[in-house]
Structures are given as C-alpha cells and as structure tokens.
Design a protein that fits this description.
The chain is about 35% helix and about 30% strand. The chain is an alpha/beta fold and about 230 residues long. Helix 3 packs parallel to helix 5. It is globular. The protein starts with 6 loop residues before the first strand and ends with a strand.
C-alpha cells in the first residue's frame, strides 16, 4: 500500500465575518502534498495565501472541509493536540526570521528539540550538524544581531527543520532578501528538505523561484489551480 500524502486539504472553506458581511477567502480549496515534494503557492496580495498556509499548518481552523496530516484527520482535534502535532511534525519559515535575540545561532536551532524534551547536548549536536549543512559552521556562536539577513534566515530554516518535520510551511521565506542572497537561502532550504525527505509548501511573490518547484499552484477567487506561467 502506498504511503498517505503528507498533507491533504479537501474542500477547505475559510470565511471572515464583519457584522453582516462574510468574506469567503478559501472556497472549497483542495491540495495534496507528498513526501519530498516542493510546491509553490502564488497569487495576488490578499488572495488568501497566508490563510491557506495557516490552515495547513494547524494555526487556524477551517469552517468547512477536511485537513489530513499523514492520512489522519486533524481539523477537529483539540488545541492541545494540534499544538503537539505542530511541534512534532511541522516546521515553519517566515519572511522575518523571528530568532530569539538573546541566544546564539546554535541554541536558536536547538530550542525546538529541547522544548520536545531532547537533552541539550544532543539537541545542540543536531543543531550544529544542520548549521554546517547551511554553511554556517563558523557562525554558530553568534547572536542574531551579529549575522547578516541571509545568515539569519538560514538559521531560521535550520530551526524549522531540526525536528525532522514531515511538512515545512514557508511564507515568503526570502521576501526580505536581495536576489543573490535569495538564491543562496532558497538553495539551502531545498537541499536540507530534500535530504530530510520533507514536503515543502512555499508561498512566494518571487516568480524566479518557481523554477525550483516540483509544481506551482495559483490561489485565486478562493480556489487552487495549476499555475499557468
């Protein structure tokens, strides 16, 4: 029997209400994401890309449809269980790195493992290995303020991947970087994700990154369709 997709969104409906007004952001949206697959998500500003990512990442609840992670329905689980699943199976990368300024790069990356109960020495060993893969061996003892923007984002990617997540969700992960740095950072994300076998869903305005994707989807009028470049 073939393995279940890492992520399935089936008929997802997301609505926002303001008084009598209802804004439907996702209109029965469907998405399947398999292990090791890199999928891009594009669409105009305000089209609901972040809403879709937050729904897929168990940060928001849909009003309708199903969300399955590793074949298991997760939409109606308790907040505590959804939080545990985010810690254990998901990794997040944002436009801004959100590193903890008081900790060095090594401990920023090791933190998710320690939160999950891994001994500090083992967590730091895994963090050191990932940072080396990112080309940051010489920067592990530096705090975020002493790192360049590209270095900070590579640390953030390492942090997102340190728990060996099944699914990585990236929301404009290079949106704050110059083109040359963007290529380096995105190459690092792809390299580690492929090596770890994670599925990756990336929302981006940067069309140049589409060439790196296995496929690209467009979100428009609340529905997902294949990108027609």
């Amino acid at each position: 029997m073939s393995a279940a997709p890492v992520l399935e969104l089936r008929g997802i409906v997301r609505e926002y209400r303001s008084g009598p007004t209802v804004l439907q952001v996702l209109d029965h949206a469907d998405l399947t994401l398999n292990r090791g697959e890199l999928v891009g998500l594009v669409g105009p500003s305000g089209s609901g890309k972040s809403t879709l990512l937050h729904t897929a990442g168990l940060l928001e609840r849909a009003e309708g449809g199903e969300v399955l992670l590793d074949g298991e329905g997760v939409l109606n689980l308790s907040d505590a269980v959804r939080t545990r699943l985010r810690r254990e199976k998901l990794g997040f990368v944002y436009q801004f790195h959100h590193l903890l300024p008081e900790f060095n790069a090594l401990d920023n990356v090791a933190m998710p493992l320690m939160v999950n109960g891994v001994k500090r020495s083992l967590a730091r060993e895994k963090a050191r290995e990932l940072l080396a893969e990112m080309g940051l061996s010489e920067r592990v003892d530096h705090q975020p303020g002493a790192l360049s923007g590209g270095e900070q984002q590579r640390v953030a990617i390492a942090r997102a991947l340190v728990n060996d997540p099944k699914l990585v969700i990236a929301d404009e992960p290079t949106g704050n970087l110059d083109p040359a740095t963007t290529e380096r950072v995105f190459a690092s994300l792809i390299k580690i994700a492929r090596m770890e076998g994670a599925a990756v869903l990336v929302a981006t305005h940067n069309m140049a990154l589409n060439q790196h994707m296995d496929r690209v989807l467009t979100l428009k009028a609340g529905k997902l369709t294949a990108f027609a470049g």
